[in-house]
Amino acid sequence: YPSGNLAVVAVREKSRAVCIVREDAASCAVLRAVFCSSGSGTCSYPSGALWINMNIQGGQYLDQAGNRVRRWTWPSSAASSGPHVPLSPIFISLNRHVGVRILGQDKIIVSFLAMGQQAKFNVGIQVQGNDAGRLPARIPLDPDELLLLAFRVRILHLFHRLQGCLSFPSHEHWDRIKPPAYLITQTLKILQLCTTSDISEELRSSVRAIVNA
C-alpha cells in the first residue's frame, strides 16, 4: 500500500499455492481475502463478515448479516446433484486499492492499484474437460478449507473480545461481552458443516474445539 504496509502475499510450495490480501494496517492486519490452488477462496467485509465463499463446485455471495444473496456452480460441476446455476460476473472492491473480479473458475482476478501502478493476479484454477467428467457427484469438503474457516471465526471472536476488554477495562464487564450476530451465525454454519460433511471424527472434533474454545 502507499503506507508501506503489505497488501498482497502470494506463496507457492511445490504444487500448492495461496494468495492472501491483507487490510492496510501496520499490525494485526485483517485478512480480507484468501485464495488456494485447491479451488477454495474467501473474501470478507471490513467488519470481518464472510462476503464470498468458493470451492471446487461453486460459490456463494453473502450480505453482511450472513444471508446468501446469490450462489453459482462452476461448469465442471454440472454433473453433480442439484441444478446448475451459472455464474454472473462479480466485481467487489475490498478497499480503495484492491478489487476482486470473478469471471470464471479459471479467471478470478485480484487487482491492485496504487500511485499509478497496477498489478494483477489470476488466482483461478483450470479444470480440464476430462477432469470435470471424473468429478464425483459430491465433492468432499476440503479439510484445509474447513480448518481455515474455523480458525478465522475463532480469531474474529478473540479480536471482538479484546476490543470489548479495551472498551471496558473493569473485569466485571468481561463476562457480558457477547459476539456479534454474524459471528454466531458463522459458528453455527461451521458446526453444521461438521455434522453433515464426510470428514474424519478427529477433524470434526478439532474444528468443534477451535470454534467453541
TrEMBL record:
Q: Which residues form the signal peptide?
A: none
| InterPro entries attached to this UniProt entry | FAM194_C
Q: Which PANTHER family match?
A: GLUTAMATE RICH 6 (PTHR23093:SF18), SIMILAR TO CHROMOSOME 3 OPEN READING FRAME 20 (PTHR23093)
FAM194 C-terminal domain spans which residues? 1-176
In its UniProt entry, what is this protein called? ERIP6 protein
Q: Which Pfam families match?
A: FAM194 (PF14977)
